[in-house]
């Protein structure tokens, strides 16, 4: 854990940054972004660091060093980052004065992570920044390159003496942030872990799943465990089933080569969607200690009923979009996208019926779906409660009575929570209407929600890994997904798959409706 200091300490004396009170303060540090010329740095990482600076959440002494092969001076890098900030972070207020001060801590080095001699240059630069910015030798290495570079980079850092194992309270400390995808199956994920653990102890490793940095996702814990009214109902006695949807209208965009290797199951389900399942399904942790929370999340994932390779089609549906219409515009099918094979069998949609085999969730199905080029962009968790035990109003409610209360946690867009319940319509006639009691983050608090990357980078600076995936959690997720991948690989070999099987702009393949329909339910109309 980092050595944090208390709220009152004034650490950033820059009057142009908004002073806000914080509970903890990060140690001085240098953040090394490997792959700084890339998309993620421009879109997310630099805007997040600037936002933290604006909010006075960075320590007084910090430096940021960008690395990639493209030759660039510090000044060129600063201009590139400033332009990206203006382009991609429209929710942030750009303040020239604050930026100019922040940019003085931004540096760039052209380095090839495949060449050991380049690590010597990185070492010299970090020594220089330690003296100039007082970073005290604490280094955060953010791996934001293609995953094939993760292991060589870790080995290179270790060989150069830039990274080593340390104890939780030891300083100076090196930490590592690893972007997803974390492996492409259980074996490769274990291999990557082995390479990481040769150089780092687990408490130094931060595996990013940016879903966990979202406000509403964190609010699931608060909703469940800070309120007394939900938890007594949060079990098989009162919950009929759970639906988790991640729908995107976007197609594969320019990420064809990445997506061809990954597909929806690896890109979304193995990580983000299973994280949501674990937050909904977990038992209350014994404390807010980060290991206590992560323990509970792993425990519930261990209870996921194993899907046998032979029975995958009973519980899983995959799909790929064909041509169609999105927002009134014609769009091509996946196989016609840029840098995608015209015979591709990569899935752009997946729906899974899962069960958590434990006391709390016995017999309650969790239906989880994720897909590209669907009718609407929305991510939500819907808890559907059982109907009232005695249907007193059955004559009035009719079929509606079978579709009763639900609690919906909307993750994007418009983060919020709504509870649907029946009310009497005003008037003499006895008529019942279903209404939503809504809470929207934006409207309720009137402040900008921090981006997921802001929260996660900040937590890493503080040495708090609660919102990062632990190694056993990643392994158990891959163990759940691996038989599905194996079954699909066999089907592909036998040419058994008929893609495309859904139209862009629809809600996915018909088989997904059948998957949920076979149990008497239907997907929510969003
Ligand atoms: N973009 C997103 O929104 C997003 C979201 C979630 C996860 N991710 C993950 O984040 C990682 C980065 O994604 P990205 O979209 O930023 O990828 P990207 O645009 O391809 O950027 C990676 C950067 O790495 C640099 N690089 C390549 N080989 C290098 C080497 N040998 N030594 C040093 N630098 C090297 C490249 O710059 P040079 O050519 O200058 O070397 C390139 O700009 C990936 O693992 C991705 O899966 C990205």
Give your account of this protein's structure:
By secondary structure, the chain is α/β, with parallel strands linked by helices. It folds into two domains: 29-179, 3-Layer(aba) Sandwich (Rossmann fold), CATH 3.40.50; 213-451 and 468-517, Dihydrodipicolinate Reductase, domain 2. Helix content is 36%, strand content 20%. The strands form three sheets. The chain has an eight-stranded mixed sheet, sandwiched between helices. It has a six-stranded parallel sheet with strand order 3-2-1-4-5-6. Strand 5 (174-178), helix 6 (186-199) and strand 6 (205-207) form a beta-alpha-beta unit. It is globular, with a radius of gyration of 24 Å. Mean pLDDT is 92; it is low at 1-21. NADP nicotinamide-adenine-dinucleotide phosphate is lined by residues 35, 37-40, 43, 67-70, 111-114, 144-147, 149, 179-181.
Rg from alpha-carbon coordinates? 24 Å
How helix-rich are the residues, as a percent range?
25-40%
What is the typical, i.e. mean, pLDDT? 92
Strand percentage? 15-25%
CATH topology grouping of the largest domain: Dihydrodipicolinate Reductase, domain 2
Form type: globular
Strand order of the largest sheet: 8-11-12-7-13-14-15-16
CATH homologous superfamily (4th level) name of the largest domain: Dihydrodipicolinate Reductase, domain 2
Q: From the 3D coordinates, which CATH architecture of the largest domain would you assign?
A: 2-Layer Sandwich
Bound molecule kinds, no repeats? NADP nicotinamide-adenine-dinucleotide phosphate
SS element count, helices: 15
Number of domains: 2
Broad structural category: alpha/beta
Name of the level-1 CATH class of the largest domain? Alpha Beta
Query: How far apart lie the N and C ends?
Result: 43 Å
Tell me the number of strands.
Answer: 17
Uncertain residue segments: 1-21
């Amino acid at each position: 854990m980092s050595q944090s200091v208390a709220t009152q300490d004034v650490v950033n004396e820059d009057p142009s940054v908004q002073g806000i009170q914080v509970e903890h303060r990060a140690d001085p540090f240098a953040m090394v972004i490997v792959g700084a010329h890339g998309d993620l740095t421009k879109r997310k990482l630099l805007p997040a660091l600037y936002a933290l600076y604006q909010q006075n959440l960075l320590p007084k002494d910090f430096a940021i060093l960008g690395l990639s092969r493209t030759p660039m001076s510090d000044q060129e890098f600063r201009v590139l980052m400033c332009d990206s900030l203006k382009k991609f972070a429209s929710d942030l207020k750009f303040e020239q004065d604050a930026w100019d001060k922040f940019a003085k801590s931004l540096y760039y080095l052209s380095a090839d992570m495949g060449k050991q001699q380049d690590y010597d240059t990185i070492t010299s630069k970090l020594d220089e920044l330690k003296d100039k910015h007082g970073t005290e030798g604490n280094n955060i290495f953010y791996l934001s390159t293609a995953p094939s570079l993760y292991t060589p980079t870790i080995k290179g850092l270790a060989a150069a003496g830039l990274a080593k194992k340390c104890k939780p309270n030891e300083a100076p400390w090196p930490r590592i942030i690893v972007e997803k995808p974390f492996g492409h199956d259980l074996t490769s994920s274990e291999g990557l872990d082995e390479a990481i653990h040769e150089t780092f102890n687990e408490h130094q490793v931060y595996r990013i799943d940016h879903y966990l940095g979202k406000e509403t996702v964190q609010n699931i814990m608060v909703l469940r465990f800070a309120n007394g009214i939900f938890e007594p109902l949060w079990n098989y006695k009162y919950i009929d089933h759970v639906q988790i949807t991640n729908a995107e209208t976007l197609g594969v965009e320019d990420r064809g080569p990445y997506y061809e290797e990954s597909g929806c199951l690896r890109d979304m389900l193995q990580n983000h969607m299973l994280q949501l399942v674990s937050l909904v399904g977990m038992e209350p942790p014994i404390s807010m200690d980060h290991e206590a929370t992560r323990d509970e999340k792993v425990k519930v994932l261990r209870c996921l009923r194993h899907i046998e390779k032979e029975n995958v089609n009973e519980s899983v549906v995959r799909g790929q979009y064909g041509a169609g219409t999105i927002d009134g515009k014609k769009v091509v099918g996946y196989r016609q996208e840029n840098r995608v094979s015209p015979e591709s069998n990569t899935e752009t949609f997946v729906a899974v019926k899962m069960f958590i085999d434990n006391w709390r969730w016995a017999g309650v199905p969790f239906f989880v779906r994720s897909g590209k080029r669907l009718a609407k962009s929305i991510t939500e968790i819907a808890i559907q409660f059982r109907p009232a035990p005695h249907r007193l109003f059955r004559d009035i409610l009719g079929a509606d009575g079978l579709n009763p209360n639900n609690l919906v946690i909307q993750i994007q867009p418009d983060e919020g929570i709504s509870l649907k319940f029946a009310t009497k319509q005003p008037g003499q006639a006895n008529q019942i209407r279903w209404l939503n009691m809504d809470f929207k983050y934006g409207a309720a608090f009137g402040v900008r929600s921090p981006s997921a990357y802001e929260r996660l980078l900040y937590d890493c600076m503080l040495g708090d890994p609660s919102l990062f995936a632990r190694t056993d959690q990643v392994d158990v997720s891959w163990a759940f997904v691996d038989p599905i991948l194996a079954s699909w690989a066999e089907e592909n070999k036998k040419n058994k798959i008929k893609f495309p099987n859904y139209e862009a702009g629809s809600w996915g393949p018909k088989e997904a409706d059948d998957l949920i329909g076979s149990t008497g339910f239907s997907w929510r109309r969003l």
